[in-house]
Amino acid sequence: MYQRPPGSFSPFGLPPIIIWVILAAIIVAIFPILTGPLNLNAAIQTVRAAGYTVFASAPGALSGSTTIFICSESHTETLELAGQIDKCTFIADGTNDQVEINLGVDSLPDSGGTVVLSEGTFTLGSSISITAANITLLGQGRGTVITPTTNAVVISVADGGDDVTIRDLAIVGSGDSGDTVQSGVRIKDVDRPRVMHTYIIDVGRDALLLEENVEDAVFAYNYIENPGDDGINPGGAGTDLTVLRTVIHGNTIINAPNGDLVHLSVGSADNIVSDNVIIGPAVRAIAVLGQEGRAIITGNEIRDTTRGIRRAWLTEPEGQLTKVIISNNKFTNITEESVLVEGDGEALISGNWFDVSSATPAQVVRSASSRISFVNNFVNANTGTSYGIIISGDGLKDWIIANNNFTGAGYRPINIFDSGPGVISGNILVVVGRPGVALTGDTSGVLIEGNRITGGIEDNTGDNTFRNNIGYIARGERRTLTGTLSVGVANDQAFTEQNPENVAVIVTRVFVDVTTAGGTLNSLLDVGSATNATTSSDNLIDGVDINTTALYDNIDDQGSSGNSKQRLDANGGTTDWVTGTIIDADADNLEGNYVIEYVALDSG
Asked: N or C: which terminal CB in the chain sees fewer CB atoms within 10 Å?
């Protein structure tokens, strides 16, 4: 039995040589940790000691690897059968699996890398946290399922996590909207994050949340369903403008009854929302609430929501919205406004398809904003809808409604109330049973030009300008009919024109320009109002010589029976024609032109 020499000290009563061997082993083990970067092998031993499974020989098990493989225990049998179990760096056992995932993230070098999740279920007791740059969290599609068990953010990307990508995985939340912290992915204080090809359902709050201080984020080709609040929410916290240039593209977002499917919050601007499928129920499909807006919303399919797109205006200190483009979207079955524009700022609504014939909202598009342009859209609505587009507000001005096609029945395509100046031009307003345009309240300074209108115009103000609308002429509006002279024998018609208007008119001027003589001496022309296209009349111009080149009119050249004006009945009335008749001799060589000017006696 070993005896300690007198005066010597040996801990635990062990021989000194044994003590020195133990101390040397400890120093060898801890020296790399104390003097250098994290040794992943030592970290693996720590995880093993805590009861987790680690394959030290697997890819990523050595310090400095740029790829870490984390396997779900629920998938290990499949991996073993396939002979691939040795690919796993860590195996997550289905309890607090964020430990292995976060360890994998922390084990990557400073330059970044990829944490690969296998198929199977990963159950979290708290958040997956990424606070380093150039990290990719990569699943295997919908077969990689992350399920939270607490009211916590599922995946958090925060300060330091620039250029992080999360893709090809599924997040299945609690389905409890009371879990108000449980966002699928929450991102803050980073630049250029990417979330792509994920499947996020039933989270308690927002599926994808950009909280603050995030620039150049991309959310693309994700499937989102049944979030407790909003589907995608850039700028979710605070009123400072800190979330910029977010791209939301190619996603399918469904069912947000407590919020918005896309919520461009107060703190966001310069957003692009493109080519998404956005389906309710939801309060709004897309809400643009940012201080300055500057959003492009294009190519989306939007249906079955209370409102389609709302561009709101916020008072100081938040500021106001500007420059919103809403183009080439399809709206179906929206129960209130498909587009609601409020406050100051420019808005272009162009090339959209609005079909609300089965939803009967009060109005399809409503604007309480100046500087709105509503152009090249298609609107189909039915009885039960009041207006296609309504612009309503004290003194709203500098707006334009142009080249749109309104169809359906029982609603007013265009209603302007207390607004102007503005322009309504080139629209097709084929709506049965109601006026095509209604100008009400103190509307003034509006130019209504070149529209095709069924149902007429309701104008309660009288201080607006009408020009060349098909199917409607305003009282006092001047128009012209023009054409070329025809050759003929005596008693043939050189020209005929029927009143094209639905109201009576006054013919105020007729010009006849003979550019080539008729060719027969004593060939004359009579012009006047008539009951049909074959009846001659001389009550405007009586017997001018058409065997010579000359310019005639009914003021200076009216002759003995001619007059400076004549009344024509409305189209289809008794006397609704103007005829120009060759008399006394043939005019076989006649060439020239005519112009008839007239003024409407009423509106219609």
From this structure: N
